[in-house]
Amino acid sequence: MGIINQLSFEVANLIAAGEVVDRPASVIKELVENSIDAGATRITVEIQRGGVRYMRVTDNGSGILPEDLPIAVRRHATSKIGKASDLDSISTLGFRGEALAAIAAVSDLRIISKTAGAELGASIEVNSGRAGRVTEQGAQNGTTVIVENLFANVPARLKFLKRDMTETAAALSVTEKAALSHPEIAFRFISDGNMKLSTPGDGEVMSAMRAVFGPDAAKQFIKVDGEVSGVRTFGYITSPSFPRSGRSGQNFFINHRYVKTATASAALEQAYTSYIPPEKFPGCVIFLELSPEAVDVNVHPSKLEVKFSNERPVFESVYHAVREALTSDTSRHSFTDAPEAETESADGQPAGAAPESRKPAAARVSESFLPVTDRADGPLPDNGISIADLYRGSSGGMMPSFGGNAGAGNIAAADGRSAGAGSSAGENPVEVIRGKDGERRVQGSVCAGPDASNGSAAPCEKGNGGEPDSGPDGIASATPNPPPIAGYAIAGELFNTYILVTEGDRLTVIDKHAAHERLNFEKMRSRLKGAERSTSLLALPISVSLDPREADALAGCLGEIEKLGFLIRLPATAPGAGREAEITGIPSELTQNEAASLIERIAAAEADGSGEAGLIGDTSFEKALYQASCKASIKGGRVYPEGYTLHLVDELMRHPEITYCPHGRPVAYVMSKREFDRRFGRI
User: Distance (Å, rounded) from C-alpha 275 to C-alpha 281?
Assistant: First the structure.
């Protein structure tokens, strides 16, 4: 006697249901998608006890005809497609004809529906897969589906469910994603009688985001819009000031269907390179619009995974749209949004490192403000000192840098005049400082605060009248600099680390190391992009083992890899076989280990569609600049000639898009006068 059994229809239904329905959230997803496909403009989801006991989804869509109700609860019954060719261009969320049959197989199901032209509605009940007869019933236009006693006939499934609170959160998450994907639909989610979600349905993505994330969190997003090779990317991305610890905040919608896509996620994260710390992740609500023929959603019954006919346009569209949004964002961070803790100190060192040990003796003396330099009315007063002279030290020495009494906590402030104001050409600049000990005059050859022991002025490191060291890149320069920007005033420097700048009715606090580091990074990156790649030939080739997919992918992009400065040989073998790539030349900017690692990453990314050789190479070269730009920058906690500060602030004001250092830390925070007034009780 044979041992192969023909499964009964009921058992086959239970097996199929396991692919579609594994928890209450799965039921909510399938029913909500049916409501969206029915053209509903209002959808209400209600659950009890996490959905195990009771679920109801109500919509005002087109409804179901009475004669279609018995067919709708059968397997492979759908109104979305009719022939095989329809699978090539699916535009609806549902199409497999499995959802209602799967839900009915593991629960008690009741459907009440009415079409717009009918006088009465109709209803049908299905208990554990056994359908009853259709009866007339009064109802409003649309469909209501009630699901009770989920998994009552398969109790083994119940032990895999989580607590009611966890199941409620999962069902709510499904509804939130549906609300984000279709902001033109008004959604409501009610759990045990409590309203958890309500969206206006006004068609605005941001309105749905405010309802889902909250109004304060929604302010953290930046708008994105772009198109590459017929793939449009639009929506919102999180500000780099608020990175996530995981990828749970990434929401991608392809033709308004929520999906999980490694291609788009990799493009998003690569675009954030140098904007957030490497251990953090960006969040997003990104919509991708492309031809239905270019994406296959018939991969898995859950329809969360998709395949692209060509992944590169998707990757490039997301990358370039996000990168453009980040580089165009000129908003400064507000103190009210400041994170509670930073991962690095002011000069890029790990938190907890003792800054005192890295400061010169003069810098340890003062932790207060530098003198005021009034820039609100345009260039410095005509005192015979040009901006370029400040950096060359050609007019009697460097601009002075002052501090207050060490440990006293007082603020040493100037009388509002620019350094050297009132002096004739060729004279040393004179600054009048009012401190705790009264008024005193200080010559421009002094560049550090008073000595802690006797209050005398400490000389600068280069001596009286000495030129400033060329030191930090982009600060001291022998070439003339553009005229200073009008409309702001440098109010001073706090803790020898943060520059205070007033602009109209707001105060901007600049981390001088982070700001200078980013400016240097951008200059270095610009030079790198404009230069020809130089290649270092290797005496002994480096071998990199690749699996068949990676080898084939690498062979298809050798031209792009060579543009990066590589010389590679791929020995010919049978198609589909693994190969050893031999690297005979590497970019001069990389070490041999870095070069081998880069080739491995390019091959893997090209093979799975999560990257593109040119962009991955550029990112790797940029990372190589991180340390160089950091070392070339002025350091927090140290005293520098005031010309450095003037030039740094001018550069930053000319580039409002500079908002983060290459490590992802903010370069400045802003606080408005209104916020000061509010905190001091003036309003």
Answer: 10
